[in-house]
Amino acid sequence: MPADDDEASGPPPHPLDRVWFHPSELGTSVTALRPQPAAPRTWVALAIALLVGITGTLGVVLAIGGLGNDAGVNRLQHQIVAPSTDADWVATVATAMRPSIVTLSSTPAGGDANRIGSGVVISADQVLTAAHLLDAGTPTVLTSSGEVGTVQVLGVDPETDLAVLKIAGADLSPARLAFGDNVQIGESVAAVASGAPPRQWVSAGVISSMNSLSPLATGIQGIGLLETDARFGGTAAGGALLNTAGAVIGILTGPDRLAVPIDAARDVAAQIAATGKAVHGWTGVVGTDAVDRPGGGVRVKTIVPGSPAEIGSPTGGLHVDDVILSVGETDVGNVGDLAAAVRRLKPGDPVDFSVVRAGKRTRVTLVLGESQPLPSDLMVAS
Questions:
Q1: Which of 150, 201, 210, 333 is the least crowded, having the fewest Cβ atoms under 10 Å away?
Q2: Rounded average pLDDT over 225-247
Q3: Domains, the chain, ranges and CATH?
Q4: Which helix (H) or strand (E) holds 166?
């Protein structure tokens, strides 16, 4: 028969008969514990402590991907981590880049003032720079440590305003080159160049636009350029555009806040080192942005006679009013995207174009031709 509430119900509980212990008890022998009168509302404190402990344990388990997840994937590997948390990252990356930036100096024929520019060291004996700096003749190269190198011009590419120089007699420190497919509009960047020795020139901003079309310093139509709001100085041409991790994402073209993406620059440098020149793909299409359809695209307005776009494959080429949606695996949103995608490819490459023709999606294969430098006042023929 149950005892009344106000009657003794038996001996007090054993001190181990509970689910929680205070940390101070861990160093005490369990056999030495003695029953103590419970303080008022002790059960509240015990419940809160137990809840906190369980919650903390669950948090740790979730953070490492537990709770029965047998996929073997570390969730921390998928977190997006900022490349730099340094509040003074511009100073940090500029200082680290100093040994990889050289000063180019040349005197135009009949001129009395030196032309000063910059170059980015890409290997133990090669420097990538802006081609228009060579208009005044072969330059002198001065490293950040004060060494003067002997210069040999390996080749120039007018379409990208890039040149590759081979340097002898100087100790060069190659820069770290990024991968251009990681560049995003709005990301922070620093433009770094050399000034009149021993000065360094630095500016900071963000990526404003990608795949821009803009005249280069040579008067040639530039294609696939990065645009930034960083302010450029007079010696910026041939310098480096850096991300917050200090890797080169572009080669500065001059005072117009533009840079050649590093992937394009790396390709040009490899071609010049191998053959002395660089070539780029071409289709012979002149188009306009298809702003009247979701996702954009390029509407074909004109096709150059005898071009790859007209000849096409045995099944035919492109047609006027086709809307180009992609080149290979690269989506096309506007004319700049189309021109950049085609120029990254090589003459002779067979490439699939996804197009909308008469309201239906179809695929056209073109064998690319070789592009030619175009004056900036002509329409872009991709």
A1: 150
A2: 93
A3: 19-79 (no CATH), 84-278 (2.40.10.120), 281-370 (2.30.42.10)
A4: strand 162-168
